[in-house]
Amino acid sequence: MHFPSLIPFLIPLSLLTLINPTLAIATQASSSPSREAQYQTLPSLRESAKIQDKWRDERVENIPNILRRWGVDAWLITQREYAEDTAFWSLKSATQFSARRRTISLYIANPKEGTPSAYTWIDNTPEVYTSITHVLSSQNPKSIAINTHPNITFSSGLHVGELRGLYQNLDRKWTDRFVERPMVAVEYIGTMVKGRLEWYRRLQETAWAMITEAFSERIIEPGVSSTEDVEWWLRSKIQEQNYTTWFQPDVNIVGVEPIFGPPDAIQEPLVSRKRDIIQYGDMLHVDFGVTALGLNTDTQHLAYVLYPDEDESSIPSGLKAGLAKANRLQDIVISNMKVGTSGNDILRASLDQMHSEGFEGKIYCHPIGDWGHSAGTLIGMTNLQDGVPVLGDLPLLNRTYYSIELSVEHFVPERNATMMFYQEEDVYWVSGEKGWEWVWGRQEKFHFVKTKSGKRKAVAAEAMSGQEEL
Ligand SMILES: *[C@@H]1O[C@H](CO)[C@@H](O)[C@H](O)[C@H]1NC(C)=O
Ligand SMILES: *[C@@H]1O[C@H](CO)[C@@H](O)[C@H](O)[C@H]1NC(C)=O
Ligand SMILES: *[C@@H]1O[C@H](CO)[C@@H](O)[C@H](O)[C@H]1NC(C)=O
Ligand SMILES: *[C@@H]1O[C@H](CO)[C@@H](O)[C@H](O)[C@H]1NC(C)=O
């Protein structure tokens, strides 16, 4: 209900473009969710484990395809309890909490007929190397990928001790066949099986529901509540809903005065930390994510604190225009996210298009899924707008999820100042022409805190003491 779309859905885009070119941008923005976000209850732990293991089995079955695509015959992963390879966390079953003893997995691209493509040993004796040697001898892979890449987290999880163990215990015939194929782990970890989307959407909806409630008069009392109160309210809410998270929620007041020094001395000089008590007329910003079922979300939204008795129509139009500009940059980035293109090329094309349309902003998108910042190419980082070494040169993969994270500058006449408008929203890859779609939707309207004069609620005080009502 907070986000009814102003533009009718039924008018074809092409027609609107003909009538009024300025409307075209607004019409692309019909990606606003069609209903208000609700809290989505998670399945029981037992049911969750079943769901996750089904996804995991499907992913493991896909490994031979990945190996063949990147031209390698086998993939070897070895680790000891508490010193796991990064890839382990995407390979394990739901009831595994760590590797045990020495846990070794071997995957074969083209197994001999009638033999498996996946092997796992859990052992604490040198016997395990004999067992591996048996399989290697019968499968005879010409190249064996190991996770020793110097720059890519997800392809570098082989501990040095394990590598030494391999060299000590395997014949040179096999260790000479070790190669680095970083895209194997990147594609394995980054690829999302279809069944995950239904749940990812529920997670995303829940994150929106939490933000919508946090940025409301139920939780925020202007002049009383601090940004930190809202952050901890979000943490409590996550716990109450049986979710977890992968980073501390970050709530701040988007200000106009740099406080850490001159604008070029700091990444985001326009976020004011001079004051943390929320006041009427503030524009608020949140960076927030939830974790459940082995998936992570990442969202940044904006809110406006109305003066008493104002309604949504009182939100300054300069702020609304800033948000619309951020929406425009989202469209630009997504239109450039062609599978197979490198993150750096997508970044360059998007920044060029943004400049040609006459505005300024920053792009820093990342893959998301098993990890908040997951495996795959990066499309900019806040401090690397000319390209990201190594990670930005990887090709964009299909069947992945991405966080479209960015900010734009916009002059707000009502404030006589240029302000930053931050947005972050998750998308998933769709086969065919479509490209990418919002998992739940994107923010096109401000969240708002609406207070009545003389009617201050005790809710904010409750929230601060952590005893919020349902
Ligand atoms: C790792 O990163 C460094 C610094 O960017 C670069 O010089 C080196 O070539 C990279 N190595 C690989 C294998 O990507
Ligand atoms: C959270 O988990 C507890 C324990 O299983 C359960 O009683 C409660 O209903 C769950 N809450 C939500 C919101 O799912
Ligand atoms: C994803 O990309 C790979 C490699 O380009 C291709 O082989 C595969 O068919 C694509 N998958 C889908 C579902 O389009
Ligand atoms: C707007 O800001 C500029 C630059 O800071 C200043 O010179 C100007 O006087 C301001 N205008 C108003 C109406 O306050």
What would you note in describing this structure?
The chain is an alpha+beta fold and 470 residues long. It contains 14 helices and 17 strands. A five-stranded mixed sheet has the order 3-2-1-4-5, sandwiched between helices. Strand 14 (401-412) and strand 15 form a beta hairpin. Helix 1 (13-19) runs antiparallel to helix 2 (21-28) and helix 12 (317-336) packs across helix 13 (343-356). The protein is elongated and about 80 Å long. The model is unreliable at 1-29, 256-273, 456-464 and 466-470 (pLDDT under 50). The structure holds 2-acetamido-2-deoxy-beta-D-glucopyranose (4 copies). One 2-acetamido-2-deoxy-beta-D-glucopyranose binds next to loops.
Radius of gyration based on Cα positions: 25 Å
Please give the alpha-carbon distance between the first and last residues: 19 Å
Number of strands: 17
- Tell me about the biggest sheet? 5 strands, mixed
Average pLDDT confidence is 89
> Strand-residue fraction?
15-25%
The general outline is elongated
Low-confidence stretches: 1-29, 256-273, 456-464, 466-470
List bound small molecules.
2-acetamido-2-deoxy-beta-D-glucopyranose
Helix content: 25-40%
Number of helices: 14
Strand order of the largest sheet: 3-2-1-4-5
Counting helices, strands and paired strands, the structural category is alpha+beta
